[in-house]
Design a protein that fits this description.
- By secondary structure, the protein is an alpha/beta fold.
- It has one domain: Alpha-Beta Complex (Spore Coat Polysaccharide Biosynthesis Protein SpsA, Chain A).
- The chain is built from ten helices and seven strands.
- It has helices at residues 20-25, 46-53, 66-80, 100-108, 124-127, 132-149, 165-170, 182-192, 215-236, 243-246; strands at 7-13, 34-40, 57-61, 85-88, 114-118, 161-164, 197-201.
- Strands 3-2-1-4-6-5-7 form a seven-stranded mixed beta sheet, with helices on both faces.
- Helix 2 (46-53) links the parallel strand 2 and strand 3 (57-61).
- The longest helix has 22 residues, at 215-236.
- The radius of gyration is 17 Å and the shape is globular.
Length: 251
């Protein structure tokens, strides 16, 4: 715990058997109260590795629900466990769990209700091996999103995020996509709910066993990101009442 607040780490997993142990070993278990792993119908030994590591809470999707569907299960379980601060860490070891204390302190201190670890602040992305085309696409999409949404994030596309339970309970995650665009829909909901997002710089690693999406799905993701940004803007301008932002969270 931190300042009497329960800390829960959630790990959305898919074929993460080769990298899960390295990721888990860096989680500061003296601070983190519970670890939740949701396996999205992996084809490898992710679940077996998780069990050997002694991860307390393992949820298995018998059929693949997608990246967004996986996160929905993660956050639902974290709230059921009474988590006050919830941190999503990908088990592909692209992001180091050693940043968890810094991220939780920013929330526990009351400075922010949401904190992202950004690969773009500093030189972590390219230094860590992010392919140049991904870096350029990230920067371009982020620039356009900031313009449309009137925000100033350094990166919309990081998968390393921390939330207070208050935030997770106040937005309608169940109405979001089950695919990769879930992340950006969640960001739009957070801004619409009036929360600010704090950012810290994050080193990153790119290697063969790390997760990735192919070019076709990357294009689909980019188009979904743009659609989400425009939906947010139209809603904010009062031109379109969007259920993504108006629906009440399900209890």
């Amino acid at each position: 715990m931190i300042d009497g607040r329960k800390v829960v780490v959630v790990m959305p997993a898919y074929n993460a058997a080769k990298t899960l142990e390295a990721t888990y070993r860096e989680i500061p278990l003296d601070l983190v109260d519970e670890v939740v792993l949701v396996d999205d119908a992996s084809h490898d030994d992710t679940v077996e590795v998780a069990r050997k590591l002694g991860i307390q809470h393992i949820i298995i999707h018998e059929a693949n629900k997608g990246y967004g569907g996986n996160q929905k299960s993660c956050y639902q379980k974290a709230l059921e466990l009474g988590g006050d601060i919830v941190i999503m860490v990908h088990p592909d070891y692209q992001y180091t769990p050693l940043l968890i204390p810094a991220m939780t302190h920013l929330i526990a201190s009351g400075l922010y209700e949401v904190v992202f670890a950004s690969r773009i602040l500093g030189k972590g992305a390219l230094k860590g091996g992010m392919p140049m085309y991904k870096y350029v696409a990230n920067r371009l999409l982020t620039f356009i999103q900031n313009m449309i949404m009137h925000q100033k994030l350094s990166e919309y596309h990081t998968g390393y995020r921390a939330f207070s339970a208050k935030v997770l309970k106040s937005i309608s995650l169940e109405y979001n996509s089950d695919d990769f665009v879930f992340d950006n829909q969640m960001i739009a909901q957070i801004f619409e709910a009036g929360y600010q997002i704090g950012e810290i710089t994050c080193p990153t690693k790119y290697f063969a066993d790390g997760s990735s999406i192919n070019f076709r799905r990357s294009v689909k993701y980019g188009l979904g990101v743009m659609q989400t940004s425009f939906r947010y803007r139209l809603h904010r301008m009062g031109l379109q009442k969007d259920p993504l932002f108006t629906a009440s969270p399900r209890k």
